Amino acid sequence: MTSTQTITVHLRYFAAAAEAVGLHEERLLLAAGANAQNLAAAIAAAHPGARRVLEISALLVDGVTCDDRSAPLTFGDAVRVDVLPPFAGG
C-alpha cells in the first residue's frame, strides 16, 4: 500500500488576500494530514504581509467552508483552497 507523504494545495486568493499575497493563485506542498492552521502558517511564512488577512479570511476547502481549522484538509493528495477575506455588500 502506498502512502501519500505530501498534499498539493492549489490556493486561490481573492480581493484583499490577493493584494496581501501579491498573487491570485499559487500551489503549496504540505505534509499529508495538514490542517488549515498549518496551511495559514505556510502562507504567512511565504508572504509575511498576509498574516493579518489570513486570520480574518474564510477558507473554502474544495468548495466547502472550513469551520474547524484543526481538521485535516483532505484525505487525497490534492486540494483546492479559496481564501476569501470579509467583504461588504453582495
List keywords for this structure.
90 residues, Ubiquitin-like (UB roll), five-stranded mixed β-sheet, 5 strands, Beta-grasp_dom_sf, Mopterin_synth/thiamin_S_b, MoaD/ThiS family protein
Summarize, please.
With 90 residues, this protein is α+β, with helices and mostly antiparallel strands.
Question: What does this 3D model show about the protein?
Answer:
The protein is α+β, with helices and mostly antiparallel strands and 90 residues long. The chain has a single domain, classed as Roll (Ubiquitin-like (UB roll)), CATH 3.10.20.30. The protein contains three helices and five strands; from the N terminus they run βαβααβββ. It has helices at 15-21, 36-46, 51-56; strands at residues 6-13, 25-31, 58-61, 64-65, 78-84. It has a five-stranded mixed beta sheet with strand order 2-1-5-3-4. A hairpin with a 2-residue loop joins strand 3 (58-61) and strand 4. It is globular and about 30 Å long. 20% of the residues are buried. The model has no long low-confidence stretch (mean pLDDT 89).
Beta-strand portion reads 25-35%
Order of helices and strands: EHEHHEEE
- CATH homologous superfamily placement: Beta-grasp domain
The level-1 CATH class: Alpha Beta
Shape: globular
Residue runs with pLDDT of under 50 for 5 or more positions: none
Summed up, the helix count is 3
Structural class: alpha+beta
Structural domains: how many: 1
Look at the structure and give the mean pLDDT: 89
Rg over alpha carbons: 13 Å
Could you say what the CATH topology is called? Ubiquitin-like (UB roll)
